[in-house]
Write a structure and sequence with these properties.
0% of the residues are buried. The mean pLDDT is 89. By secondary structure, the chain is mainly α.
Length: 116
């Protein structure tokens, strides 16, 4: 009878040790999985925030119609600038002729009619 009790206690001790090892292994694996899930959740939140910022940036960008209108306005401005350039060129020619006339008048007045 003492042998049966001794074997029962040793068996119970062995089974309890195995159960403790299995419980510890399952518990640490659960913590590792929980840690990885938490880390993955943080990464997903970060990616979601980046995607939201990107979507907002794309939403704020001008569309095809706005870009086309801008292109038309720039073309119109380029035409206006060309017209202004031509006008300025004409005015420069007029000013050059006027300057020549004024210079001749000055020369005539400075000479005081000495050629007479």
């Amino acid at each position: 009878m003492a042998d049966v009790i001794d074997i029962g206690l040793k068996s119970a001790s062995f089974i309890l040790s195995i159960a403790a090892v299995v419980f510890t292994w399952v518990r640490t694996r659960g913590k590792a999985v929980d840690g990885r899930l938490h880390e993955g959740s943080k990464r997903m939140d970060s990616l979601e925030a980046r995607i939201a910022r990107l979507e907002q940036t794309v939403h704020d960008m001008p569309g095809r119609d706005e870009t086309h209108r801008l292109e038309l306005r720039l073309t119109e401005m380029a035409g206006s600038m060309s017209a202004m350039s031509a006008s300025m060129s004409g005015q420069n020619e007029i000013l050059a002729r006027l300057e020549r006339v004024v210079t001749r008048h000055e020369d005539h007045l400075l000479e005081g009619g000495r050629n007479r």
